[in-house]
Amino acid sequence: MVDNRTIGIFDSGMGGITVLSQLIKELPKEKFLYLADTKNFPYGGKSKEEILALTKNNIEILINRQVKMIVIACGTATSQALDEVKPLYSVPIIGIIEPTVLELKQRKKCKTIGVIATEGTIRSKAWEREIIKQIPQTKVINQACPLLASMAEKGEKEERVERTIQEYLKPFHNKEIDTLILGCTHYPIYTNIIARNLPEKIKIVDTSYIVAKKVKEILKQEQLETIEPKGNYEIILTKEIEEFKTMAEKWLKKEETI
Ligand code: DGL
Predict the structure, then answer these.
(1) Which end of the chain is more exposed for a tag (fewer CB within 10 A), N or C?
(2) Which atom of ligand 1 is nearest to the CA of 42?
């Protein structure tokens, strides 16, 4: 069986573009529809109820566009809504947490894992729960980074970003973490800054690569792969923002990795 329909992806804004970028590389023949809920950005400080309602709304927009699968390219929506929405729709829906933790389990090198993410994601304890379930002996150290997604969304590059990141990474300095998960899809744009403010031996995990591999696996398993010769992507927003698409192009080409 083949399926030439589109794959739907959503986030509150620009963050999920890091996932879209890997998906295009991994699945060059597929068509992608990226929905940025710019009207409701940021998601990080919202309640679980709000996130659940916004997630359902995003899924319905994508389903109305006939997508064959949905990728929640947002840590905040994955952590607070994925379990509830998954049984409600007939298309496969995946988030960023479970595939990442399963991949880390395979690597067998994680004893103490640090997680940085939005306030809502950290409050939900979703990463911690999944890590303890899959890799039971692991210790998890969480750190919420409330300002970081908004800085990334605006493409901030100044001194203030470095200082903010240094502040957020402080709790990891006297703890022996071997792995740091970027638990929000906006953060990979700052991988370089994060890396230079941590001991070199700490492995930084960008979920986008892992999620893209997982999508490929699911399409194969569910016989949803396309037979079109060449893919494409479209970006839609819930509120028009003039520079969004130009900036997304830069993120896609990784020109914006700071
Ligand atoms: N990129 C999102 C995440 O992974 C959302 C950030 C936000 O809107 O606060 O959590």
Answers:
(1) N
(2) 8
Ligand 1 pocket member 19 (CB < 6 A): no
pLDDT tens digit string along 208-230?
999 999 999 999 999 999 999 99
Q: Which residue's CA is the nearest one to ligand 1's atom 9?
A: 44
Q: For helices 97-107 and 207-221, what crossing angle results, to 10°?
A: 100
Name residue 91's amino acid. V
Residue 56's pLDDT is 98
Token output for 146: 């409330």
Q: How confident is the model at residue 258 (pLDDT cuts 50, 70, 90)?
A: very low
Q: Which residues are catalytically annotated?
A: 74, 184
Q: For residue 194, give the nearest of 145, 236, 154, 240 by alpha carbon.
A: 145
Q: What is the pLDDT of residues 97-136, one digit of tens each?
A: 999 999 999 988 899 999 999 999 999 999 999 999 999 9
The reported pLDDT for the residue numbered 257 is 53
Q: Amino acid identity, residue 176?
A: E
Ligand 1 within 6 A of CB of 12: yes
Q: Kindly report whether the peptide bond that precedes residue 42 is cis, defined as omega within 30 degrees of 0.
A: yes
DSSP string, 50-95: HHHHHHHHHHHHHHHTT-SEEEE--HHHHHHHHHHHGGG-SS-EE-
